[in-house]
Amino acid sequence: MHRCYLPDADFSAPALEITRDEAHHALRVLRLRVGEECEVFDGRGNGVRGRIIAAQGSSSMTVGELQPLPPMPPMPGITLAFALAKGTNTDLILQKAVELGATRLIPLISERTIVRLKPQEAEAKAEKWRRTVLEACKQCGVRLLPAVEAPQPFPAFLQRTDLPELRITAAITPTARPLRRVLEDARARGTQDAIFLIGPEGDFSPAEYAAAEQAGFTPVTLGPIILRVETAVFMALSATRYALDSTLG
Q1: Which of 104, 178, 181, 244 is the residue whose CA sits 20 to 30 A from 118?
Q2: Inter-CA distances, 9 with 52, 60, 98, 134, Å
């Protein structure tokens, strides 16, 4: 079923007006017609199912016969902070992060990050990635739109005071703890929020590892196999979601 994003939706209204890009995509690209069903969500977890009752060309449509969707089960707040990857891999990471339940996405520029962006390019990239994340939400039925931040330098990121208490770094270091043990301890404490830090293709530098530990990040190992950045992201998010999400058992 097609899903439309309407951030300022009033779900108490008898009908909702969908315009601009959302209407064009539904009416022109997907060729939905009057009488067909669709869902509308606001990115904050709320949504309704309705039927298209009117359309004006490809620029506007009205969705009526609204029925509230069941509330989404509570999910842990998982922030993914990751060094920018080459080519289209950043888009892939963002898409899969949405599917795996990440609620905030923070791209980083570290010492060994290959991708470099000028300041004026960073926000433009972030806006493109926000569209990627929105499309992923629509495709997989996630009604809580993850926040996507502009790329930021690694040292500035470590100075932030708004990061969760449970801070984990995927590390290739002798002192790294087993991921399972760290997550089992967090689950036993009832932890609901976490941030997972993933480095670039060339890994974090020793100085960056030391700075991350100083900032409260626990280095963990993802096993003896050296993983690509995107694979490490998928494994880290999957393990963290499984450990902290009570709906998964």
Answers
A1: 104
A2: 16, 15, 22, 16
